[in-house]
Design a protein that fits this description.
The protein is an alpha/beta fold. Helices cover 43% and strands 19% of the residues. It folds into two domains: 133 residues, 2-Layer Sandwich (Nucleotidyltransferase, domain 5); 168 residues, Nucleotidyltransferase, domain 5 (2-Layer Sandwich). The longest helix is centred in the last third of the chain and has 27 residues. It is globular, with a radius of gyration of 20 Å.
Length: 335
């Protein structure tokens, strides 16, 4: 089954053709980094306009690079939630137009489910059930993946997402957008024990995260140093900050794995590209004789190939949308 997938939930306009949920025939991504870098982050209105300009060409190119015509496709898939509402609407409405003009079924796909499905492309042998840590700029979840379409969240952030906190901390340190990526790069030469930072926890739930206090601690540390005329060692502070975030993510994930009896651990989301997180997950899985699955780096960020992968299983489960499909800025992964 060949599915044309469209992704426009944030600042990447992407399209891909995926066969049977595992084989990527084409994948095209139009990035907007240059447009947002001067603002230090994504501006929703600009993102929506850029999607409108790019989507037609991106989709045509994805079909062409797959060596197919629209008549060779079996379905259209699109990310409809969660994300920036204006950005999502561009992709959803374009997909509905394609569905109407081609007569192909329309498959609605949840963004976080797609991130998890990126691992099906990298690891063709991976099958549920497993425990997945999904970490991105807007989400930090520990998810039980019971089947391809059955999910249960057992841990989540109570405030800011890990990726968002990394971006904001990077900006406070004077690093350019995209903050998380540049923070990871500059921290390679840093000492992760140079700065003592809090290890936040949520007393009412041992699997939930809280990162806002950690972010505030870093910002206050930088402000106090500035007021005293002291110089901050950015590589050291960056390494210390990433270490603190990663410790929280890993501790809760493996605590959940041991409690719920999972030996198969999966990492997903934009922050899954972070080198420290990947290394620490590998170490902790090896110590516990657990299997670890991580997406290849090209599939960590937003892309349409992961949408096509999840769409295949949504289709098999009968999840087909009508032309009244709407975008949703927020939606639980279980829905």
């Amino acid at each position: 089954m060949r599915i044309l997938a469209i992704e426009s939930s944030c600042d990447e306009t992407a399209a891909a053709v995926v066969e049977d949920g595992r084989k990527v025939l084409s994948s095209v991504i139009a990035t907007q980094i240059k447009e947002h870098i001067i603002y230090g982050g994504v501006v929703p209105e600009i993102a929506s306009r850029m999607h409108t300009q790019a989507i037609s060409g991106v989709v045509d190119r994805a079909v062409s690079e797959a060596g197919l015509g629209y008549s060779d496709l079996d379905a259209i898939a699109v990310t409809y939630a969660p994300g920036l509402i204006g950005a999502l609407l561009v992709g959803v409405n374009f997909a509905k137009g394609l569905s109407m003009s081609t007569g192909l079924p329309l498959i609605p796909v949840h963004h976080l489910r797609s991130h998890i499905a990126s691992n099906y492309i990298t690891h063709p042998d991976l099958e549920p059930p497993f425990l997945c840590l999904v970490v991105s700029g807007g989400h930090s979840h520990i998810v039980e993946v019971r089947s391809y379409t059955d999910f249960s969240v057992i841990g989540r952030t109570r405030d800011d997402a890990a990726g968002e906190c990394m971006d904001k901390a990077a900006r406070a340190m004077g690093l350019p957008y995209p903050g998380g990526v540049n923070l990871d790069k500059i921290s390679v030469s840093g000492n992760p024990e140079a700065y003592v930072l809090p290890r936040p926890r949520v007393d009412s739930s041992e699997y939930d995260f809280s990162f806002s206090g950690l972010k505030t601690a870093v910002i206050n540390l930088i402000h106090k140093a500035s007021q005293k005329g002291e110089e901050i060692n950015v590589p050291d502070l960056g390494a210390s900050y990433i270490s603190a975030v990663v410790r929280c993510l890993c501790d809760n994930t493996f605590k959940a794995a041991e409690t719920f009896g999972y030996k198969k651990i999966v990492l997903a989301g934009g922050v899954s590209a972070n080198s420290v997180l990947r290394r620490r997950m590998q170490e902790m899985c090896a110590e516990r004789s657990m299997q670890l699955y991580m997406p290849e780096l090209s599939l960590c960020g937003d892309n349409a190939a992961m949408v096509g992968a999840q769409a295949y299983y949504e289709f098999l489960n009968g999840n087909i949308a009508g032309l009244n499909l709407n975008a949703c800025a927020t939606m639980p992964i279980e829905d």
